[in-house]
Amino acid sequence: MSKTIRLDSTEAAKFAAKIQERSGEPIDMCFQCGECSSACPVSSDMDLMPSTLVRFTQLGLKDELINAKTIWVCASCFHCVTRCPKGIDIAKVAEALRQELLRKKLDYVEVRDLSMEERQEIPQIAIISNLRKFSR
Amino acid sequence: MKIPYFPGCSLKTIGEGFEKSAIASAAILDFELEELPRWVCCGTVSSLTTDDLMHHLAPIRNLIRVEDIKETQLVTLCSVCYSTLKRSNALVKNDPEKLKTMNQFMDKENEYQGSVKVLHFLELLREMGFDKIKEKVKKPLRGLTLSPYYGCLLVRPKEFGIDNPEDPTILQELTKALGADVIDNPYQLKCCGSYHTVDKPNLVADLGYKILTYARNSGADALVLSCPLCAFNLDNRQREIKRQYPDFVEIPILYFTQLMALAFDLGEEKLGFDIHYVDPVPLLKEKQLLIDSLPLIKEK
Amino acid sequence: MEEEAEKEKMVKVYIMGREFEVPATLNIVKAFEYAGYRFVRGIGCRGGYCGACATVYRFKDDYRLNFALACQKAVEDGMYLTILPFVPAEKAQYELDKLKPRGTVLLELYPEIARCVACNTCTKACPQELEVMDYVQAAIRGDIKELSNLSFDCIQCGLCAMRCPAEIVPYNVGQLARRLYGKYVAPQAKHTHARVEEIHACVFDEELDNYSILVKEDVEKLKKIYVEREIKVG
Ligand code: SF4
Ligand code: SF4
Ligand code: SF4
Ligand code: SF4
Ligand code: FES
Questions:
Q1: What residue of B is the nearest CA neighbor of A88?
Q2: pTM here?
Q3: CB atoms C104 and A120 under 8 Å
Q4: Same domain, residue pair C43 and C109
């Protein structure tokens, strides 16, 4: 399957800059070594590898990024940043990307959709952290 | 020595045994863990975007409460609370502008001066020395083989961790001092799936299966850890693991403070084993670390 | 003469943007009525108890938003006023008899309390000066007793819920906790039970019957009995 990636200069560059600023991470420094992807414990559930997420952010590929499963799979475990030779924290990049949607009233997890059994079983720490990550 | 202590929400429910055993064992080491007055939920995960101050309010409010009682340290048990409080503290210390904005917003509070140091209880133990802890052991945990588990936030990211992020030893040192044996588990640093336990329990079960099965196959009797979220994912979620992997064999989960309370021989009511999913009592009886004659106190 | 001038001291207020001069002695509700408005909703006891008249106001040239019970707050010069006839709020359905007073019940029925960011906005909004944030926090950790105590004076006015950025409705959570506390936790009032028993055993029926005869036949005598009745204090 081949895919054409269109580098729309101004829009893409703006989006890249926005995510770089919101995440506070030196995304431009990434040279695609792939250390992060091999360190990530949940990459098997991702559609874009962590290193690809960073590459696409450099390129400002907004649609591909905000529609990626990866941003909702990242567990903020900080394995990637521990290994990255450039110290890029992909948990922050993923959060900056999620916020792009969450700030526009798009919830990924809606707390009231949890069943009564789930509410009874799952402890506060899990529900609170999950909502912090996945609801607006 | 009195020291302000931040429990966090889950130590009041599923982490009850963690809190009880910690307070009791700390007392043996002359630490009086004093619950911080009017503490608020830290938010559990630190906000990771540069422009979101709202989610740093709760951690900073707690640090203000510490300054309010004229103290300079705050100790936590939960790895997640530890990380969140520590990160917000670092944020405002490095960025006075942000602190100013937050102080202005929290106009009903005293201004945060940045004088508080956030500590994990394990750091206190290391500071006092594991030899000293060994001296207090009444009932060494002989014959018990444990697999230490760190997970993420106790050691990562490295600026906010309490030990080497790739090769930590603090839990090994403690368990050895208490007389137990430890195994090497390459999964000791792997994420348990964290908050995905809400939206992706299957993913959490996959991760837990690897961590726990390795421990079991390497001869560990139980896992030892320091976080109520890890504990939920690795203990309660064993039901899902079993459903997904029929070959899975259950293994108990223990908080490091429960080990201390056992080794200091503080009595079963300080252990809180009654709310564990996989009951550690049969194992501990088999190893003669708990005696049959004492019935377990069931609260509820 | 001077007294009269005092009485007639007027202040300038702005009701939904329109300027009015009203006597300074009025509360906000009365000021509205003085200006010609009539309350159909958003009003109740007029005594500071029912919470129906919660309102917000600002002063000219002041960024702060202020909160009050309109029936209790006296008008001041330069107030920008409005009315809040109703606060939309969602309440969980439950049968108290089937609940257990476990701390986690609060999170089960109102899981959105997990969204609290401890911003304290609710506390600043409360006209009863309750520590609303503290009671929401008590709810998260499941401390039913603390929550009941801290929210005890809540009059369900709804202002906290209108202000909460996490869209929590604190007062319904507090109400649930007080119900659980009252039913399952607080020590039972023995004398109340004894009295209920007496009522069931028809101990007071004859006395009441006598009064109902007086209602029809000798109201003056009934009034006298009422005025001279024995009042227990404390
Ligand atoms: S922080 Fe996210 S991307 Fe990085 S290793 Fe963990 S799950 Fe993977
Ligand atoms: S480890 Fe760092 S430099 Fe290497 S690919 Fe990942 S983000 Fe890029
Ligand atoms: S707690 Fe909320 S509903 Fe209750 S009196 Fe205060 S503001 Fe009104
Ligand atoms: S306003 Fe809402 S989010 Fe803020 S402290 Fe109150 S309950 Fe929590
Ligand atoms: S009308 Fe009832 S409190 Fe004001």
A1: B157
A2: 0.90
A3: yes
A4: no
